[in-house]
Hints:
The protein is of the alpha+beta class. It folds into 2 domains: 2-130 and 302-338, Diaminopimelate Epimerase, Chain A, domain 1; 144-301 and 342-350, Diaminopimelate Epimerase, Chain A, domain 1. It is 21% helix and 35% strand. It has 5 helices and 20 strands. The strands form 2 sheets. It has an 18-stranded mixed β-sheet that branches. A two-stranded parallel sheet has the order 11-20. The termini are far apart.
Amino acid sequence: MQLGFTKCHGSGNDFVMIGDARQPLLLKTGELVRLARTLCDRQSGINVGCGVNQLGADGLLTLQPDPQATAQVLMRMFNPDGSEAELCGNGLRCAARSAMQSHGVDELVVRTVSSSYRVKKDFEEHVAKVFNVTVDMGRAVFTPTKIPLVLSNDHHNSHEVIDCAIQSLPDEIKFSALAMPNPHFVVLLPAQRKASPALIEESQLKELGSTINNLLSVFPRGGNLNFVSRLADNEIFVRTFERGAGLTNACGSGMTAASIIAARLGMVELEQPVKVYNKGGYVITQTRRTSDGGYAVELTGNATFEASGLLNCQSDIKVEYPEIVEYSDEINAYAHVYASGLAMAKRCVRC
């Protein structure tokens, strides 16, 4: 079988995208799982593009018309381990760009397995020749049973977990739990010195992230763990351990979850643009209060296409690339944004 594909990324969070908003996708879920494991492998996966990451990917995105006809396109996202995510904010922007270009519009609705999202092209040129998309990421869910998070007997009546300890995790670390709609756990790191960002320890992030994704008695569906360091007024750095992928350059839903908790706890301002840096660049978020007192967020960031071509998929999932086109202009345009993310990472991340 021959498939068209695009290698793309949002904030350095890179994907292989297959399918089209106007054509049915003929592959079954089991085939997509195997394809995700093959293409996304960082040692032996897809080897195209020359931008942020060349070998492998952080996920497989699939596009097709929405069978329910409630949106213009249905997007699914499979992690490198083959598991399917409820949402991927960075992948959503890439899927939105492809769908908007396919339909010839600047705004539409994308449905995922969990919800529907209104997206639009961002015409403000933050960086020359970088295609940006704005997504209304919706409202956060804080109810523990809906995240889900199983609380200890001491906290079983709690209606939310905000800036407090969670059983089976170190008592000295304060977590906030929410769903966006995938499960997220956010830690706002205290600065060690005035005017100096808190140091994110990647070894600790990986250890705690692995615990969250293996301790199913407390975290039934695992989750994404986000460490947040304040850089300046309305500027933060977020590093995420993603369920099903591990450490990635960026996590779109993680940056929105971090922005909501940072706004709720006073690290950044509500109703104001916040620059959220990551290892792959940065995005802009804005957290707002809803009419019923909840919290919702809007996310604006790049949707960069690095390469496109054809995949020859054999029955044993052997993949060949008979035709590849690389988009060097887009890769070069994003290089400045990528460099700024790396510069910030050097300030506040210890590998």
